[in-house]
Every structure is written in structure tokens, then in C-alpha cells.
Amino acid sequence: MAGEIVPGFPDRADPLSLSSATIYVPTRRAARGLASELARLVPEASVFLPRILPLGGFEEIETGQLFSAPDDGYAPDLAEAIGELDRRLVLAQLVLRWSAVISHAIVHFDKTSGPAMHADEPFLVASTPVHAFALAQELAGLIDEFVIEGIAFEKLGALAPDNLDRYWNITLEFLKIAFDMWPQWLRENGRDDRVHRQAVLIERSIAGLAAIAGQGPQIVLGSTGTNKATALLIDAIAGLANGAVVLPGLDLSLDARAWENVGVAAAEGHPQSALKTLLERLDADRADVVALGSVQVPLDVRARFISEALRPAQTTDAWRDWRSEAGDARISHMLNGIALIEAADEGEEARAIAAGMRRLLEVPGRTAALVTPDRSIAQRVRAELARWNIEVDDSGGDPLASMPHGVLARLLLACAAPAPLSTDWISLLAHPLTRLSLPADDLRPVADDAEIGVLRGQVFEIGKIDEVLRAARAAASDYHAHRAVKAIDDERWAQVADLLHRLRETFAPLHAIAGKARVGDWARAHRRSFELLRLEPDAAPFIGDDGETLLQLFEDMAAAQPVDLDFTLDDYAALFDRLAREAIVRGPRQAHPRLKILGLLEARLISADTMFIAGLDETVWPPQARTDAFLNRPMREQLGLTAPERRIGQTAHDFEMAVGAPNVFLSRAAKRGGSPVIASRFLQRMEALAGAPAWDVCKTRGDELVHLARALDEPPERPEPVEQPRPCPPLELRPKRLSVTRIETMRRDPYSIYAEFILGLKPLDEADEDDGPRQTGTLTHRVLSQFQKEFPDPLLPPHASDRIIEIAREQFAELLQDPGFKGFRWPRIETALLAYLEWDAKTRSAIVRLLVEEKGTLTISLADGSQFVLSAEADRIEEVAGGYRIVDFKTGQPPSHATIAAGFSVQVTLEAAMLERGGFDTPANSKVLEALYVKIGSSNASDERSAGKGRDDKTLEGLIAEHYSGLVEMLEQFNRLETPYLSRPYPQYVSRFGAYDHLARVNEWSLGAGEEEE
After folding, report:
1. Cα 721 from chain centroid?
2. Which among 138, 452, 809, 929 is most buried, taking Cβ atoms within 10 Å?
3. Measured between alpha carbons, how far is 237 from 80 in angstroms, rounded to an integer?
4. pLDDT, tens digit, 9 for 90 and up, residues 178-217
5. Does domain 15-67+197-319 have CATH number 3.30.70?
6. Would you say 746 and 758 are in contact if contact means Cβ atoms under 8 Å apart?
7. Helix ranges (DSSP H) in 559-645
8. Helix, strand or coil for residue 338?
9. Nearest Cα to Cα of residue 144 among 108, 198, 71
10. Is 877 helix (H, G, I), strand (E, B) or coil?
11. Terminus-to-terminus CA distance in the chain, angstroms?
12. What is the pLDDT, as a whole number, of residue 61?
């Protein structure tokens, strides 16, 4: 505390005497937190709380306040502050204008002649409004930093560019947007920057402090004064007779040598750096500071340990003497109440913290708080506490983008795009807030029908609903259509049509805007479409905290500065997504009164019995030191801007404050995002100073919560593997007809045949399935089929190459609309088809007759008198001198000789057996001379895999006989009631993921054992 305690200063024993005070705190969030804490501590039923004012919030960017009116006081003689959104839009307009002038890539820049540009390289910096908006945010941050630090813009021109890279001139020219064009725009429009206006108001407040000298105590609480204007206000309050400055966590025990090194260039990251700078601005020293009360001995010795552990690096040579003097026993005593949670990943870390907070509630009156700079950790802990139905107050709130109203608004824009994904349509209709003027109970079944019948398996265009519906109904009548699609009757199809037409009307406001428009026009159309989507009788479209936040965002965007900046729908969607992630929803919660999740600043002012300090890994706590996008480290130093390490020092100070609770759990994760991370330097220093024995004790305390976290999702006993399913259905239900490809499936995975043909199950088409290879293979087969049917003669015409490419363009017409497919995959397809043509021309000379996609069946009589029908559709059957040749085209990898010889790839050999037994339109007793697979999809179409020519010296004739007898034997086995349809009896010959593996509980009976893949 700077200054002396004066008569009339609030008595710490009487909270009521605070009611006349004015308390200044760093941010609005800190003000709310302090008010809540004071209300909790005061025992009276009602009380007048002191006036609590934020100093300006410069120590932490509160993105949740970006779109609210700045609370900067009434000053009619000052220009009105421009809103944050308007400022970024205007800056984006200036950036875009600058980018338009620089039309090509800059080679170098001369102050006299201007930029020299490369005629063949386009300039891609800020080429779209949304990119310019993102760059404007960086510019706005730099402008604020100059104002906060009190640095004149003119100093940029004195950075001695001759000593720097010549490209610095380009950056300097760009920064004129911020320091020339932007101030000029403000003057011309009679506006001011919010940060500058607040700095002026603070200066006026300083001048007016004498007038309020007798109006109650003036207290600055929890601020480190990193803002120059704020530091001046703190200085003025410290000089008042009724003024006091409560310095948060000033270290009075740090030795003089270490204190001298605090704040120097090599020790910017020290937790006391900001406070030392503030004392210097106050023309005070640590000797002028009076301690407010005393600290209990255990916490006092712990504070001394933390102070020693975080001492400036230049003085850590003192550790050896300190450890010798303290001794292991005393060091262990210093670490009493500290536990270290070392989790495997961020999920386990959150579970351990949640388990600890939940366990603490068993002790009456105990309180706990989680402190972390990482919002994802806070969200994970909240989710874990929900398993016990515990709602916790989170001061950081939630981004609008992840809340129900925000998600629906983003989905609406995604579906309004020119080519939305089917998954977006499905998500939009399935969202719980979607209504379309229908009751929820009526909407859900119709939405399910729309998903199954229309939105899966085809591209849905909302502008062509009638065409899409006709195509969907035609597909539903196809023999191969899924039974769920076939089950949709005329009445249900009519309901689907009505739903989709309602959906089209919802998008009318957005689609009415052709091309580009201002952000306000898009926002009004977006809001109207959202209201239509949410429309229901006697209900408002914007409900709850997130609904109100979304409404406010729409209103702010609609009232945005009318700048000359036009957005496409895609640009507006990206802009809205960015703003929705910045807008924070903070509403009243039915939270548990003894648990809190705090940001770093709130933790300075709010106490708890137990503190969970989470995210203690490098780049999380402390964060990574980074410079801005424009100025490097030497430039910042020359200008007088703070070093990037200042943020590290601030978070170090926050850590030092948080660790002062009676009981502390420090937590970190070995991996974050699947990648290994390094423990925070704070932990490393503590471990190095404490030594292994004392530090291991802290780990042991934390391991208890880690074990609890792991036990939460573990069964009481290790599960025994379930028995592999052995379904043995009645004989009359077993299939009596299969194709040769299904025979391969039956050989590899009989359970799939059981699920599909006996249980009647069939997977639905995946929405937006990335079936590129499968779709390409299907279309390639169609191209080959059409081409061979058009040209069945032994000689190909001269224009054969042109014709096959023409057929391919017709078949691939829809895919060719995708520039990515056309640029990357189509050339390979063309090359593969021309390579096939070369192979075809060489083989045709010996062909007498060509059969394409020839269908055939063969009836097989079994031992019990029953019959089984084997069917096939051969890609190509060639009649040659002395017999036939069977060809199967593969766009994927052909089967290996080993799988053919083992009887797991039997397609061409069984087709050969069918042909020799009269299963195709061929003479009886025909002879198959060759059966082969031909790979299509590379420049080498002669990549043939012939059955019967492997290393095992098996002849084709022998393989045909062996595979046919093996088929009859397998059919005989499955014609017995005791033969089960096993799942994956030969795992090395089955694909890694089967459509029915979940039904067969493969992961349970195999205990997740890895499976080889051929």
C-alpha cells in the first residue's frame, strides 16, 4: 500500500464502512467479481456496496465488451468514441484501398519513386474484405498500444530504415494507414478512439480528484498500472489524503540484489516487473509500502519459497546457499498444502480437477476456485462437473459461436452458401431451436424423413427443390434403394416437400441479396432469415442469454458504420463467424455458491480455500512471447514499447498471487492436442529449488486426484472379453442366392451376410461421404462399359481416344464442376483412360466376340436336395480362338496372388466356373483360357493380375476347380443349422472397418486387438 493510512479510511473489521468508498479495479469482469465477493463476505442481509469502477480494462482484452457502448463517462466537449466494430470496419476499408493500389507483388519500395512491382505476381495481402478485416484487428491493437504507452506516432519515421532491411519501407508505408489515414478519418468524421478518449477522461479525473477529497476513501485495488494513463491516475490517488493504492502481491521479502535485476531487459518476465515499474512511476520504493495485515506462517513461508523460485535468472546462483540454509525439512514444510497434478492429457487433467472440486464439497463451508488462462480447460472442467449435476460460475463466459443461438446462426449462413454440405442441412433441421412455424413434435419426424430420403446420397440445392424431390422419389423406387427410403409413403413425401418449401422461404432474405452488399444489409437479412427459421406461435426468436447476445450482435452489425466495403455472402459468413467467436455470453447461472472458475485478473480479488491452478505448461501458462505483425523486437525497444515478455511477467504475477491460497493444486498435462508439451517454467523452477524429495511429495498428493480421474470412467473390474457372436439362424432364413462378390464377403466375414440378408440391415448413405475413390471407380466402370458397347469390333476406330474422353466428360460432368477435381484428379483419369485404350487396342485383334457387363446365373444343387443360385455380372468376357478370356477391371488395387490362391479373391475364377458350366450366354462346355484383373487408374494399364500364374504354380484350371469345390463345400456348411455366421474369422483378409462391426461387438470380443490388412 502506497501512502499512509488516514483517519476515516475504511476499517477492515467493519465491511459496512466501505459503502462510502470508491474502488478502482482493472476491468469490468474484476468489478463484477469484487462486488460478488463483497456481498458474500458481508454478514448483513442488505448493505450498500462501495462504488466500484473499472480502470479501463487495458490489462486484458475483454472481447465480450467489443460491441457494447464504451462506459467512458459523460464529456460533451469531447468527440464521441467510435465503437470497436466500426473502427475495424473503417480500418478494413483503408487496408483494402491500400491493397487495391498495390496491385502486384512489391519487389522493393523507394520513398521517392514508390513501390516497384512484379508484373506477373498478383498482390494477395488483404485481397478480400474479410482478410482486410482480420488485418484491421492487428492494426487496431497496434494503435491502442501506442496510445496506452504514450508513444507518439511520429517516432515510427525515425526508426532509421537505412539500418534495416529494405522491405521495412513497405511496412512503414502500410502503417501510414494507422498513423496518417486513420487519425485523418477520425478528424473528418468528428470521432475519437475509445482508448484515447478514456486516456483524456482519466487525465480529467486526475485534475478533479481534489474536488472529491472529502467524499469518502478512494482506493485502487488489484492493478499493476501497466497502462501509462492508469498509472498517472494511481499516482494521483496515492497522493490524496483519503487515497490508497493496494498493490497486489508486492514482494517485500525479495533481496535487494534480486530486486535491482527485476524489470531489466533479461528479466521482463519476472512477476514483480510491472509493480516495480509502477513504484518508479509513483516515485516510491518498497520501503514506502505498508503491509495490510499479516499472513499466517505457513502461507508466509510458502510465499518466500515462491519468491525465491521465481527470482531473476541473473541471481539464481543464490539458490545453492538458500537451499543449504533452509534444509530439506524446512523446504518440505514450505510446500505444505501444495499438490501437483500431472495428467496424461487435457481430458484427464479436467477430470482430476473436477473430482477434486466435487470432493471438496463434502466438507461443509469449504470453497474452491479454478484459475486458468486456457478457456478450453475451463469448459472441460465445467463439462466434467456436469456429471454430478453441478453448475459452476465461470467468469469467462462462453463464446456466442458455441452457444445454441450462435450455432444455429452459423449453420444458417453455411446452408445459404452456393454449395452447402449435406451435413449442414441435416444439422440445421436437427437443431433443437429450428421451428419453421411447426411444433417440435411435428417437425422432428418430417426432418428425419427429409434426411433419409433427400439429404443423404445426393446434392441438395434449395433453389431446385421440386427437381431434387423428383430425383429423390425416383431413387426411392429403385430396386436397390434402402428400405427406409422405400418406406416413405406419399403422405410423408408431401410433408417433406412442405418442410423443404418452408426452408426455402427462410433463406429468401439472404438470397435476395445478389452479389455483394454492406455488412449492415447482410446483418438485417441474416436476422430476418434467423427469425423465420425460429418462427413458432407465441414464442420469441431470441430467448435466453445467448439469444440476447445474438440479437445485440445483429443490431450492432446493422448499425455499423456505412463504410465503402462490400462483402460477398462467403465474406459475410467468415466475418460473422469471427465476431460470434469474440462475443462472450455471460448470463446468470444457477451456479453452486462454493465453486468458481476465474480468469487471472479476477483471481487477484477473489479468495477461496482451495485453488486449482490449471494449464501450467509452456505456451499456456505462461503464454508464448510474440511480437505484433508489424514491429520486430529491436523496433519495439527503440520506440519505447514494452517487450513481448511483459505478458509472461504478468502471468507470472498472476501465478504468484493464485498460489497463495491455503490449499493449492497445480495441474498440467503431458500432452495437449495430442502433442507432447513442456512443463511451465514456473513448475520447473519450483522443482529445481525444492529438490526431488520435497517435489515428489507434492506429486504424491496430486496423484490421488489423478487416480480418481482414471477411476471415474473405469469399470470396477477389468472386463472379460465377451464371447464372439455365433448367430445360427433357421435354414429357411439363410440366403439361397448370392453374387460372386458376396461370396467373397461370405468367405471373409460371414456376419456381414447375416446382418444384410437375414437381419435385413443395410447402412444408409453417408452424408457428404468422401467417397472419391468409390465414386470415381463407379463412373470409370460406366465409361468403359459404354465405350466397349459402342465399339465391340476387333478394330477400334481412329477417333476412339476422342470418344472415350467425350464419354468420360459426360459421366464425370457433375464432378468436373469442382475446380479441385478438374485441376488435380481429372488429368490422372484422362491419362488412365488413354492407357486403357492402348491396352485395349493390343488385345482386341484376337477377339472374336466381346461381351460387356454380361449377366449370368448358375444353379448349384446341394447334398440335401436344395439349390443355390450363384449370380455374376462380368465386366468383360472375350471370345477368342479356342475359348474365352474373363477380365475384371479394378480402379483400386487388384488382389494379390496370395489372396487368390488362398481362395479369398474368387471373383474371376467363379465367373470362369460359371461360364464353363453354361452360366453365361456362351456354348456349353466352353473353355476359359485366362482370367485376370486389370488395374485402371494409372498410366500403366498393362498392370494385369492373372489368376493361376502365381508363385505357387497353381494353374488356372486347377484354381477354377478348387474355388468352385470350395464354394460348394462352404454352401454345404452354411446349409447346416449348427454352422454360425462368424464375424471376421480370418481378420487378415477383411477390411479394417466393416459396416456391421459395431453390431458384432468386434471391439469387445477382440479387446481392440489390431488386425492385419492385406
Report:
1. 35
2. 452
3. 27
4. 888 999 999 999 999 988 888 888 888 888 877 766 677 8
5. no
6. no
7. 569-582, 602-605, 633-639
8. strand
9. 198
10. strand
11. 74
12. 35
